[in-house]
Design a protein that fits this description.
Number of helices: 2
Radius of gyration: 12 Å
Largest sheet: none
Distance between the termini: 14 Å
Structural class: mainly alpha
Helix content: over 70%
Number of strands: 0
Shape: elongated
Strand content: under 5%
Number of domains: 1
Oligomer: single chain
Order of helices and strands: HH
């Protein structure tokens, strides 16, 4: 995800997957917050590079 050639739509796909996993009870709210935080750091880092 952090590679510059990765399509930006991938972050939306991951976000939807995380939301679905939270809704299904496959992950806890703590895990959801952790993974969303990591995703946001990666996306923000890509914006800085661009």
């Amino acid at each position: 995800m952090s590679h510059p050639s990765t399509p930006t739509s991938y972050s939306m796909i991951i976000s939807h997957q995380l939301t679905a996993m939270l809704g299904d009870g496959r992950i806890t709210i703590e895990e959801f917050n952790h993974y969303c935080g990591r995703l946001n750091k990666i996306v923000d880092g890509r914006k800085e590079v661009a």
